[in-house]
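2 proteins. here.
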Amino acid sequence: EVQLVEFGGGSVQAGGSLTLSCTASGFTSGDYALGWFRQAPGKEREMVSCVSSADSTRYYSDSVKGRFIISRDNAETTVYLQMNSLKPEDTAVYYCAAREFRSYYMSNFFLRDPFSYEYIAWGQGTQVTVSS
């Protein structure tokens, strides 16, 4: 069973930075997708960024592009989300998620439309609060 644990949430002033980390375990030898999501009160959960274990291609939502950077540690199976120039509207609970590519169809689906890829393993979430 894949398990994920997030770290790094906290409070910061607008314009500041925070870096979140997510350590994953339980993967097989195959490739997988790792993603960061966030959910603010009264809003639906949204994809922020994602990356595949197979390559270094990184994807970002329009709302965070140019401010956030996703990266991963191959050896420790850890994914990071560096958040810069934070805004009050970035306030939310942030979750990391993962799902293995168990077929060629799944890996191709992710490459074709990474923002529609369905994740099945989720972390517990970490609160990020940005004050104005």
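next one coming up
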Amino acid sequence: QVQLVESGGGLVQPGGSLRLSCAASGFTLNYYDIGWFRQVPGKEREGVSCINIRDSYTYYADSVKGRFTISRDNARNTVYLQMNSLKPEDTAVYYCAAGPGGAITTLQAMCAMKRYGYWGQGTQVTVSS
């Protein structure tokens, strides 16, 4: 019933752009914090960008700051990750996630995985020349 489905991944050359989409079903996205995470083989999943319910707090990992933008379209129950100036180091499986939110003491805590109970299946992003 509760489902998140990512799309928009693919192969792109360095310097290119992609927009990832995450469509929610079974729940109303505007009542949840949303996060984008990524994972490469042999490494722990890391938070890329997370935004809270009221869109008053937005976190970006230092590695993507200035290049990626998270947004949501509540009317379409969809969250997006616009990725510009892509680098080979951005290659990973990207996951969207949703959680009920809660108090944080640091902005980085927005992307603590324990805050997110619902996860998509992931979409592959490959940046290569």
